[in-house]
Request: fold
Amino acid sequence: MESSSEADLVARLRGGDADAFDTIYEAYRARIFGFLARMAGRRDLAEDLLQETFLRLAARARSLAPDTRPGAWLFTVARNLYISHCRASILDAERLDGMAREPATGGPTPFDQAAASELGVRLERALAALPPAHREVLLLIAVERMEHEEAAAVLELSREALRQRLSRARAGLAEQLAGAAPARRTG
Amino acid sequence: MNDNERTADDAIDLLARELPRLDVDPATAAAIRARARAELARHPRRLSRVRGIARRGYHRVELPLASALAVAYLAWAVQTILMVH
Reply:
């Protein structure tokens, strides 16, 4: 989305324009849902958090700053809601990590069904096997094509910390994909 | 660029190109949109307006108030020193 059209949309949204809201909703719904689903590992939770994210956008539309970037704002809110959910839940860090790893070792996941190809399934499983901190940086930068500065703001990291985390995440993903490669390709 | 870096770059390119798109089903998407639009249509809450007025008022008086306190404290400190000597 162009920054000039984003500014126009935000200006209209600040005035309570429902069409502007719809445009933003259509542009970001699937992207935010994909991010949340891959972070949470559950479609139902991702749907709840998606709804809460857009309800917050609607509730706070009139108080948005004129220079708000809708994408960065939505990803920040979605991520914070997911973190709040994790903190509020009774799951401890070990169980959470275990949940994130389940798709790598278990049977087909809801995401496997969405993946049209064997490659898609391998990618979903490799991503799910990564620690959440690595997963989120890959989702924002590789999948969402977010600028490093914007991603650093969403993740509340310095640019240097983001660069280091991205480097580790890339290496981790490559390792996971190599480990999950079909037997015919590895010999 | 060494082999490890090249492999990592390949992996990230693969992720960018091939990761399947996920979305909610149309009925859920429509329901969320309807709830959010209803929220958007609600008038701003009275409390939010009061908070906004209070915030703007505070921003206006913050600098003069802080300046006045600093000057008053400085004056008191100078006066105390002069009284001692």
